[in-house]
Design brief:
Layout lengths: L3 E6 L7 H14 L3 E5 L2 H6 L3 E3 L27 H13 L4 E6 L1 H12 L3 E6 L15 H22 L2 E6 L6 H9 L4 E3 L7 H13 L5 E6 L14 H13 L3 E5 L11 H19 L5 E6 L2 E6 H6 L7 H11 L1
Helix pairs in contact: 1-9, 5-6, 6-11, 7-8
The structure holds adenosine-5'-triphosphate.
Length: 331
């Protein structure tokens, strides 16, 4: 009998997940394996929401954002009982290997399943790009392009009304989205969790830029930056920062929280290629009998890493981008 493998998407959805699913299914068939779709991540796994999937079932999905397998979060899976149920469902359905497409939380879940005896391979997919051992995770490039498009539009209105725009973007504790889209979108100030900021200095920077002839400003804020007062009131940081700038500078200041539009839309070429390559290698690893690995692309080469090692690493942010942005906006 052909080796039966399961595939699921878990955690936040990321554009390009579908491209990964498509490749997993077709590469599995290429290697004479039997691919099974598992729906709604670990939540669906515990409930046995799974079925065989054909090559045709993944037709016409490479260009779609989100995930046809659906995604969910599962508190039950965080418990030993929940994971035992999940393991039970896998063995009951004859699944010998599992491919998990998701972020680091999903990887931690996969590692816990491996400890119960399941063979697992993980593919990094999160718009936050906060996973170590890969230059980029699937979905990041599309998200950054989404933000850049939005900033282009905000720039039109900001310049017309000569306003300051504070734009808040996703990323959890990572500044990747803010930094890359801020630099690519020509933001005047970029605030990221990795670099402490002084809001009075931000005001000064805006004032100086306007004295030099600027008539509007874009301040890019990562959702994970610390609150202005240092006290977490539950309010998003951009609200506090925007209010502060308005009060201190007197400039008309508007706040835009981009929210979930960042994760939607057709995946970019980069995300489709990354997803296809990583997914193909995932099947190759399974074919070779490997387990407990995550795949990453480093300097354009696909590499595999022990999951436990990868999860213990800190994802580094290239601060050259930050310094470059500061130089470009200070002139
Ligand atoms: P993203 O960061 O893009 O949202 P993620 O994979 O990190 O993706 P999480 O919500 O952290 O998203 O994790 C997805 C699911 O993985 C959780 O709902 C939970 O079921 C499982 N999970 C997370 N952490 C663990 C853990 N330490 N042990 C077992 N399972 C976990």
């Amino acid at each position: 009998m052909a080796k039966r493998i399961g595939v699921l998407t878990s955690g936040g959805d990321a554009p390009g997940m579908n491209a990964a699913v498509r490749t997993v299914v077709r590469a599995a068939l290429h290697y004479n394996m039997e691919p099974w779709a598992i729906y709604r991540g670990y939540h669906g796994l515990i409930r046995g929401e799974m079925e065989p999937v054909s090559s045709r079932a993944v037709s016409g999905i490479i260009q779609r954002g989100g995930t046809i397998l659906k995604s969910a979060r599962s508190d039950q899976f965080r418990t030993p009982e929940g994971r035992a149920k999940a393991m039970d469902m896998l063995t009951k359905n004859g699944i010998e290997s599992l491919i998990v497409i998701g972020g680091d939380g999903s990887f931690a879940g996969a590692l816990a399943l491996e400890e119960l005896g399941m063979k697992v391979i993980c593919i990094p997919a999160t718009i936050d790009n906060d996973i170590a051992c890969t230059d980029y995770s699937i979905g990041f490039d599309t998200a950054v392009n989404n933000v850049m498009d939005a900033v282009n539009k905000i720039r039109d209105t900001a310049s017309s009304h000569e306003r300051v725009y504070v734009v808040e973007v996703m990323g959890r504790d990572s500044g990747y989205i803010a930094l890359y889209s801020g630099l690519a979108g020509g933001a005047d100030v970029i605030l990221i969790p990795e670099v402490p900021y002084d809001v009075d200095q931000v005001c000064q920077q805006i004032r100086r830029a306007n004295e030099q002839g600027k008539t509007y400003n874009i301040v890019m804020v990562a959702e994970g930056v610390k609150p202005v007062s240092g006290v977490d009131t539950g309010e998003s940081p951009s609200m506090q920062i925007g209010r502060y700038i308005q009060e201190k500078t007197g400039y008309d200041t508007r706040i835009t929280i981009l929210g979930h539009i960042q994760r939607g839309g057709a995946p970019t070429v980069r995300d489709r290629l990354l997803a296809s390559r990583l997914a193909y290698h995932a099947i190759e690893l399974i074919y070779q009998g490997k387990s407990g690995k995550m795949l990453g692309e480093v300097d354009q080469v696909v590499k595999s890493f022990d999951l436990s090692y990868a999860l213990a690493q800190e994802k580094e942010l290239n601060l050259d981008y930050y310094h470059l942005s500061n130089i470009l906006s200070s002139i």
